[in-house]
Write a structure and sequence with these properties.
By secondary structure, the protein is mostly beta strands. It contains no helices and 20 strands. The strands form six sheets. A four-stranded antiparallel sheet has the order 3-4-5-6, with no helix packed on it.
Length: 196
Amino acid sequence: VRYREGDWDAVILPEGLADLGVNAVAQDSTGALWFGTASGLSRLQHGTWTTYLSATLIYEVLCARDGTVWASSSRGFHHFDGHNWRLFPVPLRWVASALEDSRGDVWFGTWGSGVYRYDGAGLRSYGSDGISSHVVITIAEDPEGRLWFGTPGGARRYDGDEWLTFAARDGLPHDVVRDVFEDHDGHIWLATDGGV
């Protein structure tokens, strides 16, 4: 559904959307919109629909600054360079979040498989070797380049070398962190099941 000038417009299947079950929306540098659906990845560009990865449940979509597109599914991470798709096979239950950091690395937070990072050379998994949670709800980056991960067990902060955990025992109102946000004054806000 699109809201424009006070009106809602619904997109129906015959117009080109792969499935009515839409899990993610992203926009690339050309202005094209990408929709991750229950039956594939649909792109809307200049009024024309194109579907990729048909019959694939797409969890999350990320359009990177270099013009490439990432989509996650139960088969792993799909990377589109504008011409070809490459699959990084990883068994996934669900991908909840994706972020391209200031260095151009792409991070994926999953339900059940921890965090994955693609640095241009390969895909690396961070599970019990740092993030210590197999469920990652959200990912954010602060101005110092540190990454923040919201999990059911608190917030994890990663500076590239060290992982720090912030939980209810450290003063958070609740262990479940659903979102991380930095305001204009540089304060980090954590949205939890017990408030902020």
